[in-house]
Amino acid sequence: xSDFYVKSPPINYQKIYDSSxxxxxxxxxxxxxxxxxxxxQKLVETIGLGMAKFKFLALGQGMGDKAKxxxxxxxxxxxxxxx
Length: 83
Description:
This protein is 37% helix and 7% strand.
């Protein structure tokens, strides 16, 4: 029996951004080990959002309150929050 898998096409972050609105969160379900941070960072720079409006938090045990704080603060300040 041979190993078989289907490789997903690359994610087009610009296309996802273009079809989104400020009122709808974008949620990605990732495979273990996937790290889209650099691709999202490039999009932030490309669209001119600026890194001051892009906040990232690595989730782990005990980070729920901090994540909630990031989301609440980001919604008030118009920031992108990546958890």
